[in-house]
Amino acid sequence: MPDATIDRLRAAGYKITPPRLAVLQVIKQEGEHLNPAEILARAQAIHPSVGRATVYRTLELLTQLNIVRPIYVGESGPTYIRAEGGHHHLVCSDCGKIVDFDQCVAEQMVDELTERFGFVIKSHLLEFYGLCGDCQGAPNHPG
Amino acid sequence: MPDATIDRLRAAGYKITPPRLAVLQVIKQEGEHLNPAEILARAQAIHPSVGRATVYRTLELLTQLNIVRPIYVGESGPTYIRAEGGHHHLVCSDCGKIVDFDQCVAEQMVDELTERFGFVIKSHLLEFYGLCGDCQGAPNHPG
DNA sequence: CTGATTGCAAAAATTTTGCAAGCCT
DNA sequence: AGGCTTGCAAAATTTTTGCAATCAG
After folding, report:
1. pLDDT band at A58; cut points 50, 70, 90
2. A1-83 — its CATH code?
């Protein structure tokens, strides 16, 4: 999350306020997979008076501006990640473990998709689901 | 969603009940991007007495068995898709339009990731975010 | 039969909203 | 100064839970 994010907010006509800075800082630092409640708690550590509602409103704003993005990875609710660039996760369907990896072949597809669908592509999310080493051979059963 | 899904449920020791069949059928037919409320409504069209709670419980069960998967694509809540195979979406950050596409280079990565991280990979989700043709040049502003 | 599963309604958790006060520009 | 933003608390939504009745195997 470059500091340029602030300029982006300003450029879009939004005011730079302590709550917004706090939320931005939380996502910049902690980065990944935080849900609204966690973001609230950490934002309050920075600026104690921040309220729940403001976190939701800020998250919605940042999502609209394509600065963050909500995703679901088996958690019980939404989790936010930076929207910029790509995200590549390996998610264990059994224990929920998430591993990030770097190499990604998605960029190769951008030009083709742009041409074919007329989308201007800004970022992407690539997730693989399966079983991690620990969970292989240990399926879940009822009872 | 092959009919084999039912065998999978049975094999895992779960009972095959009308509510479960209804939810499975909804996801099999309608397939994509339905939220719990929509799934409930359509399941009730098949088996009128199905209750809200059962849909949630069934969705959780199917998620655990890796038959369906919740995702977030800018909607206000979770949406369910089949977990099998791959899903490839182009999502407009502005209007929320979702376009599915077929070609995907993700399969190429499976072997490498398996070797590197020890995951047995079953499926994947690849989403590109950007602006669709209609939304380009029409950014959102406050006020 | 037996215990998993269901539907209902209440409870809990999560989000959204209304509004006066406060802050950024 | 002007009006976007905020925090609070209440309202609305969405999910989860408790339990007796029911159903699949």
Report:
1. very high
2. 1.10.10.10
A:110-129 residues touching chain B, CB 8 A cutoff: 110, 112-113, 116-129
| pTM score | 0.88
Q: Closest chain B residue to A90 measured between Cα atoms? A: B119
In CATH, the architecture of A84-143 is: 2-Layer Sandwich (3.30)
Burial (0-12, 13-18, 19+ Cβ within 10 Å), A113: buried
Integer angstrom CA distances of residue A117 from A114, B77, B101: 6, 26, 9
Least confident of A116-120, A139-143, B55-59: A139-143
Contact A42, A19 (CB under 8 A): no
Nucleotide of closest approach to A51 (CA, C1') = D7
Phi first, then psi: give them for residue B120, nearest 5 degrees. -95, 110
Residues of A12-44 as b/e, b for ≥16 C-beta within 10 angstroms?
Answer: eebeeeebbbbbbebbeeeeebbebeebbebbb
Quote the CA–CA distance of A83 and A90 in Å, as a whole number: 18
List CB contacts (< 8 A) between B139 and chain A. 12
Residue type, B136: Q
DSSP state of A70: E
Residue-range domain boundaries for chain A: 1-83, 84-143
Query: At B73, which amino acid appears?
Result: V
Per-residue pLDDT, averaged over B63-90, amounts to 87
Give the pairing of strands A68-71 and B120-131.
unpaired
What is the model's pLDDT at position A142?
43
Q: So what's the pLDDT on residue A31?
A: 66
Q: What are residue A50's DSSP bridge partners?
A: none
Specify whether the CB–CB gap between B18 and B41 falls below 8 A: no
